[in-house]
Amino acid sequence: MSTTSRAGNGPVPLTAPSPEIVSVGRLRRWWRAAFLPFWVVPGLWCVAAVVAGLVLPKVEQSVGSIPIAVASGPDGARAVLSTIAGAMISVTGLVFSITIVVLQLASSQFTPRVLRSFLDDRVTQNTLGVFAASFLYSLSVLRAVRGSNDITSVAVPQLAVTVAFVLVVAAVGMFLAFIHHITSSIAVESVIGRVSDECRRIIESGLGHEDGLPTTAPELPDLPGQHVVVADRSGYLDLVDRGRLCAAAARHDARVELLHPLGTFVAEGAPLAVVRLPGAAAPADVNWAALVAGGVVLSTERSMQQDLSFGFRRLVDIAERALSPGVNDPTTAVQAIDRLHDLLRRIAVLPDVHPVTLDEDDVPRVVTRERSFGDHLDLAVDEIAHYGRGSLQVPRRLDAMLEDLATVTSGDRAGAVAAKRAAVLAD
After folding, report:
1. Residue 250 · residue 363 · CB < 8 Å
2. 318 in Cβ contact with 191 (< 8 Å)
3. 93 φ, ψ (degrees, to nearest 5)
């Protein structure tokens, strides 16, 4: 990220990021890039299998014959390991093909934005991992089989061959579990329920913000110094660490104001935040871009780590896809509305997240853009009402949802619900 000054002094020279502003946001992005991709779990299985296939024969050579090992001669061991390797690589291809078909089905039938849930599924990842590991393990052990036909010869790694049998049994069990899991996970109830569960997790964790941070603040003092921090890369505002931003701003007696809510796409070079200072003269030894970068993450795609509105977006997309002329499945849309109803009811009784964060001295240090109950209500109702106006089920279900929300809201929220209900009935 880069920074420009609007305090009247021209651009502020940038300095190298100091150790105290090591970017937790960037570390989080690197962590997600390294450990969340689909290939990581299968890759770990494969590495473990190769290591075990190389180490176990050497261990057996050191300790001698092990009673629990299944005795076999070199020819029998080679035949078994070759059969296992051939079968496992074939079934691995089958599992991969099934996974691709499921991803295509989920993308076309529901919404492309639910693919992340399928890619993050540990059952699928572990199933691929076990089959690939069985293949690589068998090949690794096969190279250690040599020598005579004496079944007691240490040239035949009996323990390693026995472990190959165990891996095959585990692979068969994983395959059966995978078939059951994949058939149930593509059911519309499971897809909608999974998205709803992720939304509830965000709500129950405080709408994605750290516990213990102040949620109220006095009026913001007018600070003349101003530095605009722009994004050094394009991406979605995915994470905001208000606690870290607050601590960094307090060290420099500044206030950081983010210009976008979570989930907003920020183009490279576009303003991302404004850092305000009590004096018009800008300190030249502070890297304001690094200060902001330490508390925010721009990602290539939206996620459900803090962004509740993304969960609403996915549920609305599922409902819209179900209402499209090519699908014409209003019952699925109603099921999505059911989940939206539950989520709206949960946040209706909670106060909106206050945009201002205070430091230990009750000084405003961070100002974020937060989505209100009304924003989530608009997202949940407007598009579904538009595309579902020709259905009998959808307007009725929306009206029932809004009627119920009216019983748990008051003040401005009750007015927003009433106005939304009138608009739905008018359609």
Report:
1. yes
2. yes
3. -60, -40
- Note the residue count of the chain: 427
pLDDT digits (tens, 9 = 90+) for 1-52: 544 444 333 333 222 233 333 344 455 556 665 556 778 889 999 999 999 9
Q: Give the strand order in the sheet containing 271-277.
A: 2-5, 225-230, 271-277, 255-261, 364-369, 356-358
pLDDT in tens, 342-397: 999 999 998 888 888 888 888 888 999 999 999 999 999 999 999 999 899 999 99
DSSP code string of 105-141: HHHHHT-GGGHHHHHT-HHHHHHHHHHHHHHHHHHHH
E-state strands within 187-303 = 225-230, 235-240, 255-261, 265-266, 271-277, 296-299
List of domains in the chain = 2-27+216-299 (3.90.1170.30), 37-186 (no CATH), 305-354+371-426 (no CATH)
User: What pLDDT is recorded for position 160?
Assistant: 85
Contact 323, 384 (CB under 8 A): yes
Amino acid at 410: S
Contacting residues for 3 by C-beta, under 8 A, at least 6 apart = 11, 12, 14, 227, 228, 229, 230, 275, 287, 288, 289
The Cα-based distances of 245 to 28, 178, 290 in angstroms read 15, 43, 11
pTM for the model stands at 0.78
**The dihedral sign for the CA sequence 102, 342, 264, 29:** negative
Q: How far is CA 153 from CA 149, 161, 199, in A?
A: 8, 13, 59
Q: Has residue 274 got a pLDDT over 60?
A: yes
> 308-333: b or e for each residue (b if 16 or more CB lie within 10 Å)?
bbbbbbbbbbbbbbbbeeeeebbebb
Q: State residue 346 phi and psi, 5-degree precision.
A: -70, -45
pLDDT (0 to 100) of residue 413: 93
* CB environment 113-146: b (16+ within 10 A), e (fewer): bbbbbbeebeebbbbbbbbbbbbbbbbbbbebbe
pLDDT, tens digit (0-9, with 9 covering 90-100), for 283-298:
667 788 888 888 898 9
